[in-house]
């Protein structure tokens, strides 16, 4: 699956969740898209279909391509611990996700854009790879010449203080530190990672 650039409300309605952020269209039409509307009778989904849907939801949520997704899952499966939780922790440790979590960007897609356009540094070095894996102790900052960008200033102004316990944030320096990998209970996304593990186990 190439990176999705179509109507985001349509995808949110497919999963019946605001996976791209607050969505007025979803609030008005909390049922899957289609010309027959909410009255259309939908058949019972197979176990495989449910698992695949959960995988697609995770891919859309984090903006990850198929090959990246599979490679990350393989890496999670090779680590000690619960595979599903390891997988979500690795997704959370992506640079674009960290930029989003820190409040530097309002969405993951805008965070990817900031990273790609070289507005973000990791440990003082410019990194323009959104999928770059952040490790505990790494320092993520807004590049000095980019700190006056309107998009960044606006996003940071609306940031909630200490929103995530695994991240430290210095609002004066526009710098954040990835303290540790988050625990599963601290990840707010409504993703049933066990279904993804079952899918890949077949």
TrEMBL record:
The keyword Plastid does not apply. Residues 1-45 are annotated as: Disordered. Pfam families: Ribosomal_S4 (PF00163), S4 (PF01479). Residues 3-92 form the Small ribosomal subunit protein uS4 N-terminal domain. SMART domains: Ribosomal_S4, S4. CDD domains: S4 (cd00165). Residues 93-162 form the RNA-binding S4 domain. GO terms for molecular function: rRNA binding; structural constituent of ribosome. One of its GO terms (cellular component) is small ribosomal subunit. The keyword Thylakoid does not apply. Keywords: Ribonucleoprotein, Ribosomal protein, RNA-binding, rRNA-binding. It comes from the Bacteria. PANTHER family: 30S 40S RIBOSOMAL PROTEIN, SMALL RIBOSOMAL SUBUNIT PROTEIN US4M. Part of the 30S ribosomal subunit. Contacts protein S5. The interaction surface between S4 and S5 is involved in control of translational fidelity. With S5 and S12 plays an important role in translational accuracy. One of the primary rRNA binding proteins, it binds directly to 16S rRNA where it nucleates assembly of the body of the 30S subunit. This is Small ribosomal subunit protein uS4. It comes from Sphingobacterium cellulitidis.
